[in-house]
Design brief:
The protein is an alpha+beta fold. The chain has one domain (5-79). Helices cover 36% and strands 17% of the residues. It has helices spanning 5-18, 49-67; strands at 24-32, 37-43. Strands 1-2 form a two-stranded antiparallel sheet. Strand 1 and strand 2 form a beta hairpin. It is elongated.
Length: 92
């Protein structure tokens, strides 16, 4: 179901580049694991990290399910790709 990590990371970066998330200036995939993803983003501070993360989860879920329709049948509880949990670290 998953592509090799380098190819997947390239597709993730491409999808993130096209994502329209207000106040985000730059975003890139840093690490792609089987059960989680590390994303770096820079923001102007207009929107909260919580807003950006939830928007990213929504955009990426829609894009991934469109690219891999077979994944729809393998979704977790509640029929969503991503769990509600996340970790965020800020500087500045």
């Amino acid at each position: 179901m998953f592509l090799d990590a380098d190819k997947q990371r390239g597709q993730e970066d491409e999808a993130l580049a096209g994502a329209s998330i207000p106040s985000v200036r730059y975003m890139a995939t840093l690490w792609l694991a089987a059960d989680h993803i590390h994303v770096y983003f820079e923001s102007d501070g207009e929107k909260s990290a919580d807003f950006v993360i939830h928007r990213l989860k929504k955009i990426s879920e829609e894009g991934l399910l469109k690219c891999v329709p077979a994944a729809v049948g393998k979704l977790g509880v509640g029929g969503t790709l991503w769990a509600d949990d996340y970790f965020v670290q800020t500087v500045g």
